[in-house]
Design a protein that fits this description.
alpha/beta, two-stranded antiparallel ribbon, binds zinc ion
C-alpha cells in the first residue's frame, strides 16, 4: 500500500481560492492521479500560513500577506466533501509550541506534518527572506537547521517530520559545508530515536536545484536504525505531481530495508506493508 500525505491542492499563487482547490473536479484530478500511481492513501496538507489563524502563532511578514483562508472551513470541507485524509503542514516556530498545539487540536486532523522552512525570520529554501544572504557560514546554517528539526521532533506536536534535510534544497547554488554531512544529522537523529516520530521520504527534492530525494540515504538509514517509521509523500503542488518519481523513492526505501509505511487516521499511526 502506498501513501501520498504531503499534498497541496491549493496552488501557491495568491489569486487561487480554497473553494477551487477543494472543488469536486480538482479533488477528482488528484484522486485520479493517485489511482494511476497505485496510491491508495491520499491526503491533503495545506500550508498553515494560508490560514488567518496562523497569525496567532507567528507574525511573519510573509504570513501576514497570505493568511487569508479560514482553517475551520478547510477542515470541514475536506471532511464533508472529499474522501482525502485531513492533514496540515505546520511550521515549527520555537517558543510558540502552546499556540501551535491549540491550533492543531482545533482541526481534528488525521496527521500534522511539521516543517522547518525558517530559521528565525529567514528561509532555508526560498530566495525571499533568504538566510544565505546573512549567514555566517554554511556550517552554522546546517547546524542550526538540524538542531531546530530536533526541537520540532521533541515538541511532540507533529506526526510526521517533513522533508528532513530541506537545508540542502539549493544544492550547489548556495554554500554547502565541506565533508561528510552526517555530523549535522546527529542531533535530529537522536531526537527521532527518542520520540519515534515518523520521518517523511519526499520526492519533492528531485524537482528542486539539489535534485535529490529528502532525506539523503545516510539520514534515512540513521532514522530507520533509530526505529522511526517512514511516511512517503511527493509534496505535490499540482495533480500531475502526485506520486512523483515514486520508483526512485521505493528503490531508496528498499535499500534502507524499509518494508512498511506509516498511515494515519485521527492521529493514530499504523504500519502497512509497502506491497
Ligand atoms: Zn514544506
Ligand atoms: Zn509542502
Amino acid at each position: 500500500m502506498l501513501t501520498d500525505y504531503h499534498v497541496h491542492l491549493r496552488p501557491d499563487d495568491r489569486d487561487a481560492s480554497l473553494a477551487d482547490a477543494l472543488s469536486a473536479a480538482n479533488v477528482e484530478r488528484y484522486r485520479d492521479a493517485a489511482t494511476a500511481a497505485g496510491i491508495a492513501e491520499l491526503g491533503v496538507s495545506e500550508h498553515v500560513h494560508r490560514f488567518r489563524e496562523c497569525l496567532e502563532i507567528w507574525d511573519h511578514p510573509f504570513w501576514r500577506e497570505v493568511a487569508t483562508d479560514d482553517i475551520d472551513a478547510y477542515c470541514e470541507q475536506v471532511r464533508e466533501r472529499t474522501d482525502l485524509r485531513l492533514g496540515l503542514e505546520v511550521d515549527f516556530v520555537p517558543g510558540r509550541e502552546d499556540r501551535t498545539q491549540t491550533l492543531i487540536e482545533r482541526c481534528g486532523l488525521d496527521y500534522a506534518i511539521g516543517s522547518v522552512h525558517f530559521l528565525g525570520d529567514h528561509a532555508v529554501d526560498w530566495d525571499r527572506f533568504d538566510i544565505w544572504e546573512s549567514a555566517r557560514s554554511p556550517e552554522a546554517v546546517w547546524a542550526r537547521y538540524f538542531e531546530t528539526l530536533a526541537e520540532a521532533a521533541r515538541s511532540g506536536l507533529f506526526d510526521i517530520l517533513a522533508h528532513p534535510d530541506l537545508v540542502k534544497m539549493w544544492g550547489t547554488a548556495r554554500p554547502v559545508p565541506a565533508g561528510d554531512p552526517r555530523r549535522y544529522y546527529e542531533p535530529a537523529l537522536e531526537a527521532i530515536a527518542e520520540t519515534r516520530v515518523a520521518v517523511e521520504v519526499s520526492t519533492a527534492g528531485l524537482r528542486k536545484p539539489v535534485g535529490e530525494i529528502y532525506p539523503a540515504p545516510a539520514f534515512l538509514a540513521g532514522a530507520v536504525e533509530a526505529g522511526a517509521p517512514v511516511a512517503l509523500s511527493s509534496d505535490a503542488h499540482h495533480a500531475e505531481q502526485v506520486g512523483f518519481e515514486y520508483e526512485r523513492a521505493l528503490a531508496l526505501l528498499a535499500d534502507c530495508g524499509v518494508r512498511e509505511l506509516a498511515t494515519f487516521e485521527r492521529r493514530e499511526r499504523r504500519l502497512e506493508p509497502i506491497g
